[in-house]
DNA sequence: TCTTGTCCTGCGGGAACCCGCAAATTTTGC
DNA sequence: GCAAAATTTGCGGGTTCCCGCAGGACAAGA
């Protein structure tokens, strides 16, 4: 059994290394990569079936690396180990998990015990282990009281990239008006109309405000934007 | 001599602790705080004159903590120790450094040697030590080829918060047209007109696109937005 | 003093945005 | 198969944004 660790922070990497050795005595080799890109390459070259992956790395972030790894070997077991439980990350991971794949998501703030337990559960028992906090965020979005639907989230991303309504309509193959409808739903769900402080109604540019609120609530974050921007450029702009 | 470490990651905190003890044998006590708020409190209570400060912490980030510490004791020596050299951070730090204060800015990716050297230089020699990479970003903004002026940056932040042109005009005590002028400068400097891919001119909502580009280039980041949002709410919205 | 440069300001218009209303269409549940 | 519910689409208008043009205010320099 071999485990690949993908993590850019040296301290965290060596901590992980130790944790893996302690939790999985049956593990022969522990490999390391210090960014997403080299993580992909190593996983491919060494046929690693067990990966511990940090999110947010330079070069290529954990979500993208995981996606290509899973594309090549959907049965790879991946344990995500992240500082934050931003909705954007949670959503990003959920989007790329293949049918029936086993994975885990634990926060760096978790205790040693939790980490080791997760390592054993995911790698040995093929059991998914999602941190309680992360799980909470997942739930909130399905029980769509305030959470955004996928459709709404996609529109949000397009808006955040700076596309016009017309451009979005074309990308999404919708009429102009439909895009605007979805935008209005978005505005409601993000409480864009709630005005901090006083002043007349017209203090906010709604489309911009929606994105600001999404960023403040971590529904969106920089790495989600980067991903979307890259996709946009690849798809040639239309 | 006492040193206060403000850092939320336990691994990094203990690493720092060791580094401080190694670099500064004359140091009697090393204190620790695990978020910005308790950092402020400890600094006040213990009259720490030497602080190592992480940026981006929950509760209160390093820049805000440093500001209140410096407000109370402008001669405090602060060494910022950060993962990133986002322009937003660099600018945020520069904005709060008091006249003649001594501080440092080193990246977490720096070697042990660099860190220890910086510790000695800042705390013992009262000499400012700014990481080469960070310095580069500072320069770029003064030699205003592409860098944003402070005026432009402020407008950018207001736009990113979602304020309308009119609201910004009122906040900044300018005419509507002046705000729009500044916006146009912003659009130029951020290359908002450069279109990835093909398509007619009108693919982008310029105001939104400008913010997107700023985020992608790290001219803005989430914590800068949070700060601005808090200021906005405190100032009652006008 | 007279340029020259930079910044602020007002005017005007074309484009984009925001959204109420109502009809057409698709999806859902039974 | 049908009715209810949700989604999509078009129309029309009020508002905001984007920006070219041009006239003023103020400072620096010949």
Output the CATH homologous superfamily of the largest domain in chain A: Response regulator
CATH architectural type of the largest domain in chain A: 3-Layer(aba) Sandwich
Query: Into how many domains do the coordinates of chain A divide?
Result: 2
CA-CA gap between termini of chain A: 45 Å
Mean pLDDT of chain A: 90
Q: For the largest interface in this structure, which chains are involved and how many residues does each contribute?
A: A-B, 45 and 45 residues
> Low-confidence parts of chain A lasting 5 or more residues at pLDDT below 50?
none
Structural class of chain A: alpha/beta
Might you state the CATH topology name of the largest domain in chain A? Answer: Rossmann fold
Largest sheet of chain A: 6 strands, parallel
Q: Name the shape of chain A in a single word.
A: elongated
Q: What's the oligomerization state?
A: homodimer
Radius of gyration of chain A: 20 Å
Q: Helical element count of chain A? A: 11
Outline of this structure?
The structure is a homodimer of 238-residue chains. The first copy, chain A, is α/β, with parallel strands linked by helices and 238 residues long. In chain A, 53% of the residues lie in helices and 12% in strands.
Give structural notes.
- Chain A is elongated and about 60 Å long.
- The first copy, chain A, has eleven helices and six strands.
- Chain A has helices spanning 10-23, 36-46, 62-72, 87-96, 112-123, 132-142, 150-161, 165-172, 176-189, 206-216, 222-234, and strands at 2-6, 29-33, 50-54, 77-82, 103-107, 129-130.
- The termini of chain A are far apart.
- The model of chain A has no long low-confidence stretch (mean pLDDT 90).
- In chain A, helix 2 packs parallel to helix 3 (62-72), helix 7 (150-161) packs across helix 11 (222-234) and helix 8 crosses helix 9 (176-189).
- The first copy, chain A, has a six-stranded parallel beta sheet with strand order 2-1-3-4-5-6.
- Chain A has two domains: 2-141, Response regulator (Rossmann fold), CATH 3.40.50.2300; 150-234, Orthogonal Bundle (Arc Repressor Mutant, subunit A), CATH 1.10.10.
- Chain A has 238 residues and is α/β, with parallel strands linked by helices.
- The interface between A and B is large, with 45 and 45 residues.
- Chain A binds a DNA duplex (30 and 30 nucleotides) through helix 9.
């Amino acid at each position: 059994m071999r485990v690949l660790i993908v993590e850019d922070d040296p301290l965290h990497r060596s901590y992980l290394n130790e944790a893996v050795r302690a939790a999985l005595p049956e593990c022969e080799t522990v490999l390391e990569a210090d960014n997403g890109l080299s993580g992909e390459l190593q996983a491919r070259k060494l046929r690693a079936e067990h990966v511990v992956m940090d999110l947010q790395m330079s070069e290529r972030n954990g979500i993208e690396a995981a996606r290509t790894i899973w594309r090549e070997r959907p049965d790879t077991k991946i344990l995500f180990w992240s500082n934050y439980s931003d909705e954007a990350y949670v959503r990003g991971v959920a989007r790329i998990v293949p049918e029936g794949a086993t994975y885990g998501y634990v926060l760096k703030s978790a205790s040693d015990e939790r980490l080791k337990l997760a390592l054993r559960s995911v790698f040995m028992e093929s059991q998914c282990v999602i941190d309680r906090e992360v799980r909470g965020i997942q739930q909130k979005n399905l029980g769509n009281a305030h959470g955004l639907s996928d459709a709404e989230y996609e529109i949000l991303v397009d808006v955040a990239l700076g596309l016009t309504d017309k451009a979005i309509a074309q990308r999404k193959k919708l009429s102009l008006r439909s895009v605007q409808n979805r935008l209005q739903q978005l505005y409601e769900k993000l409480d864009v109309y709630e005005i901090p402080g006083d002043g007349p109604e017209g203090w906010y540019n709604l489309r911009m405000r929606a994105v600001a609120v999404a960023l403040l609530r971590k529904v969106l974050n920089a790495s989600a934007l980067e991903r979307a921007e890259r996709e946009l450029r690849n798809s040639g702009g239309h």
